[in-house]
Amino acid sequence: MGAQKSDVEQLRYWRENNDRKSREVLDIWLNGLWLKVNSLGNEKFLVLEQVCLAALDCHIPNVAETCIESLSQSFPSSLRVRKLHAMYFEAKEDFGTATDILNSIIKADETNSAARKRKVAVLKAQGRTVDAIKELTDYLKIFMADVEAWQELAELYISEQDFSKAAFCVEELILHNPHNHLLHQRYADIKYTIGGLENLETARSYYSQALKINPKNMRALYGLYLTSSALSTSAKCSSQRKKEAAKLVEWSLKEIKKRYSEANLMVTALAALEI
Amino acid sequence: MAAFHKLVLSLGFLSMFHAAYSAAQHRSYLRLNELDFTGLPSDIFLQALLSLLIIMYGVLNVAGNFKEIKASADLDSKSWETFRNIPSFYTFSHRGKSFAA
What is annotated about its quaternary structure and interactions (chain B) (predicted)? Predict the structure, then answer.
């Protein structure tokens, strides 16, 4: 009983954190949770949905089938279950049937954002990124406050190497969530990739902001080092600014070395334990 | 341990209600004897104060752990890899298929 409880807690943790641990979820399920699923109460259906997704991710269709079946027995007319059906066909790469199901969901409920998002995912799975971008921008005209969609749009633009548009999407995300260091870091990443003196300076300040919000962000530290070393050697930069950048290079390098020496201490301590 | 704290909490509430009831009794006793109200007897006062403290202790332990007051504290340990992962946009045309076979 104790082991089962921690399994359920683990699943809940992964579900709430958006971890994509499909193989692990499936292992927990097959190692006995499937026998006890009826004792979970209200959480049963959430677990079933999670396991169904994990099974589709690992391409084990029979587990997904049983999950969908027991869900549709409990909720015969649910659109959320029908969406899982569509995803099942997606995993089988039967994109036509999947799109038909999704269209029928949207017809039944025009405000169903999940089905519209799945349509974008269907296009993405087929490699039709440009169509997916078009579909997603149409979606964002209706649901402008959908943070996930903005984030996905940024990723799609990046995969098309349309960095300035991706940067706009991330700006939108920062407006929604100004305390998230990862977004600042992402914005700086994009600006650094575009390159050029002005963009490098923007990248540097956003990396600094990310570091300010979360001093543990190693990637932002490296970004700060790279941007300021690029600035300090840039020909277009004035000598005053070059000096400032050189100072930042020195500081960030010192910080990085400090982090590594702390981490190395841990490594040697662990190695000593193993002997 | 949680059961113990719940017990403490309910004991505290019981004791608080008892103090309130005693205070009401005291007022009606004064009224019947046509005495002036000068203040609560110290034992009732002390009981009310003690049960308040007990309730505070119980509530603090029953309510669960405190959250960090910093707005971004939850995000500090997250990485971009978890944050970028959005279940609504999962696609299944990846290496999972070859591993399953």
Answer: Component of the ER membrane protein complex (EMC).
